[in-house]
């Protein structure tokens, strides 16, 4: 049960990140910046959500910054993660 709750939290965090990028498609930031300024959530949950989004090819990580991957639509990706 705990794993499902954790997965739901990660999914919600990923959707919050995608929503921010939908509103600010050129945004990029570090995991700590995303946690503090974009979604206001714990950094650990944000890091797990970022790993999910990178693994799915939605985000790319350049050095220590995350940004929307080229040719990705945030609205389509939000539906896929839900």
Based on secondary structure, the structural category is alpha+beta
Q: What is the total tally of β strands?
A: 3
Total count of helical runs of at least 4 residues: 4
Order of helices and strands: HEHHEEH
Q: How many angstroms separate the termini?
A: 19 Å
Q: How are the strands of the biggest sheet laid out side by side?
A: 1-3-2
Portion of residues within helices: 55-70%
**What is the beta-strand fraction?**
5-15%
**Main sheet makeup:** 3 strands, antiparallel
| Rg estimate, integer Å | 12 Å
Q: Summarize model confidence as the mean pLDDT.
A: 85
Instruction: Detail the poorly predicted runs.
Output: none
What are the main properties of this structure?
82 residues, alpha+beta, three-stranded antiparallel β-sheet, 4 helices, 3 strands, 12% strand, globular
Q: What are the SSEs and their pairings?
A:
Blueprint: H1 2-23, E1 28-29, H2 31-39, H3 43-55, E2 59-62, E3 65-68, H4 74-81
Antiparallel strand pairs: 1-3, 2-3
Describe the structure.
It is built from four helices and three strands; from the N terminus they run H-E-H-H-E-E-H. A three-stranded antiparallel sheet has the order 1-3-2. The chain has helices spanning 2-23, 31-39, 43-55, 74-81; strands at 28-29, 59-62, 65-68. The protein is an alpha+beta fold. Helix 1 packs antiparallel against helix 4 and helix 2 (31-39) crosses helix 3 (43-55). 63% of the residues lie in helices and 12% in strands.
